[in-house]
Amino acid sequence: MSTLPPPSFESKVCTLVELEARITRLPRPLVFTNGVFDILHRGHASYLAQARALGASLVVGVNSDSSVKMLGKGDDRPINSESDRQALLAALESVDMVVLFTEQTPVNIIEKIRPDIYVKGGDYEIDALAETHLVKTWGGKAIAIPFLYERSTTSLLGKIRS
Length: 162
Ligand SMILES: Nc1ncnc2c1ncn2[C@@H]1O[C@H](COP(=O)(O)OP(=O)(O)OP(=O)(O)O)[C@@H](O)[C@H]1O
Ligand SMILES: O=P(O)(O)O[C@@H]1O[C@H]([C@H](O)CO)[C@@H](O)[C@H](O)[C@@H]1O
Hints:
Elements: E1 13-14, H1 16-22, E2 30-35, H2 42-53, E3 57-63, H3 65-69, H4 82-90, E4 97-101, H5 107-113, E5 117-121, H6 130-136, E6 141-145, H7 153-161
Parallel strand pairs: 1-4, 2-3, 2-5, 3-4, 5-6
């Protein structure tokens, strides 16, 4: 019986050190976004496709399991492990690279890769974010993408549990 190689999308998951080495090969404008992406849903898929369409490549920063605990989403969160959340995002056509972060915010990654565009969903006041102020220091832009579909991990969990 032959052993199949791992799916090629797994290679999109990298460390910050690897990302810094690969970043010059990603076409610009470079878009960066971040989040927990605990139970992936249609809202996420649409959001990431729209984010990618704002530039020529998209890097996604994913909260580590320990950093999710800092966000107050609940003691039982995340439901999916950091490794699974990264792999699912990497499997999306719109996503070029996936990198984990362990801090409360992704500002360290942003400082290292200096994206041209920072994106969050319409659930955020984009001008109030530290990430926005940071990208503007090198002439980058920050863009909030309005929700096309009202979906959330929290509401999906509510349905499952009720
Ligand atoms: N329905 C949606 N449509 C568009 N963008 C979304 C939607 N839900 C979340 N986003 C965006 O996706 C990113 C990750 O969001 P997040 O993981 O918080 O999703 P969520 O489903 O709202 O999760 P939770 O219910 O745990 O807060 C964020 O940048 C957020 O703005
Ligand atoms: O999935 P979420 O909860 O939308 O992602 C969070 O976004 C925060 C945002 O960038 C404001 O700083 C971030 O700080 C947090 O770590 C999550 O990624």
